Structure prediction request, 177 residues.
Amino acid sequence: MKIEYFLKALCLAAVLWLFASPAEARHANPMCSLSAISDDAQMCRLSPAVSAESCHEMGIGTLQLPDSCLAPGVRTLGALNLFEAACDRGYGPSCVYGAVLIVQRYAGIDQDFTRAHGLASTGCEADDADSCSMLAFFYVNAAGVERNIPAARTALEKACALGSQEGCTMIDNLPAN
Prediction:
């Protein structure tokens, strides 16, 4: 009999959650709070028990939160913090995700090529092909660093060696200087 009451309560909770207004949804979803996202980023930076890949996935999840949950700028900044935490711990895909958010000036993020270059460099060192390709972009376009075609070539060669067809193609399109 107790199980029957538990199942009824569970069904009622599910129905209430489905029909909750956006304001109620904010309180129902624990990720719909800036402090929760900040806590996740802090945990990703400090806790060896949390994998860098998990931090990356939390960043993606934060970007996917609905507008009714958090404003786009808040979501983007929270995701960037999670991507940077995962990048700092050597998870290369997070490095390029963070760099793209910065370069593209997504909601609430200042365009800072030096910061984005640092993320791409860290990702390339962690053997992430996309980070290496992006690092070449910074060197070719003098974005956050001085123009350096030999460094761009090295980054693209590494991207190519890591399996990036785009990196292999871009090597042939590099300017002479």
Q: What stands out?
A: The radius of gyration is 21 Å.
